[in-house]
Design goal:
By secondary structure, this protein is mainly alpha-helical. About 75% of the residues lie in helices and about 0% in strands.
């Protein structure tokens, strides 16, 4: 049996479905993370003074540029997001292959994703507060309400899968099952 084949199921035993379900959700999550971060990187090309001034009135272009993060932050943020996306994709493939290292990898991803989402949220809120005058000029009297409503919803959606994984892998029946899987090569050892 190669490392990427699921182990044989004992005669009469029903194979667990959760590795495929969790693995598929992780693959979709990772793919969306990678696409999102690649999209963020493209903003460096079209959210620049020359392009914005061609598309919008000069005052709107100026306000938009004042609210954007520095290009270096955009690149760093995208690279971190790409690494996180790759971690969950690799971990999910390993879970689908019934390798314990997939659980280890996606558990690490879940903790790192939670820390990263909360860190980036604080930085975004700080940027919004610092740019409050620009936001008020763009959407007078609306941005505070929109942020108060959308931020908790966005955080709940983004944090749901990592928190779920941390809970799922701690369940006794799930733990019993993945502890019986082949070890494979741990992604954190050589």
């Amino acid at each position: 049996m190669s490392q990427l084949e699921a182990p044989a199921v004992a005669a009469g035993a029903k194979p667990a479905r959760w590795p495929n379900v969790i693995g598929n959700i992780g693959l979709v999550t990772g793919a969306l993370m990678v696409l999102d971060q690649l999209g963020d990187l493209t903003t460096l090309f079209y959210f620049n003074p020359a392009t914005l001034e061609r598309w919008f009135a000069p005052e709107i272009a100026e306000l938009t540029l004042a609210l954007l993060p520095p290009p270096g932050w955009t690149v760093l943020s995208a690279l971190i997001g790409l690494v996180l996306g790759a971690l969950v994709i690799i971990g999910s493939l390993r879970i689908k292959s019934h390798l314990r290292s997939g659980v280890e990898l996606t558990t690490w991803w879940a903790w790192l994703a939670i820390v990263w989402v909360l860190t980036e949220s604080v930085l975004v809120i700080g940027r919004m507060v610092a740019g409050a005058e620009h936001l008020t000029a763009l959407v007078p009297g609306q941005w505070e309400t929109a942020t108060a409503i959308s931020l908790p919803i966005a955080l709940a959606v983004v944090l749901a899968y990592p928190i779920f994984l941390l809970y799922w892998f701690r369940r006794a029946d799930v733990r019993r099952e993945y502890e019986g899987w082949a070890d494979g090569q741990s992604p954190f050892t050589t």
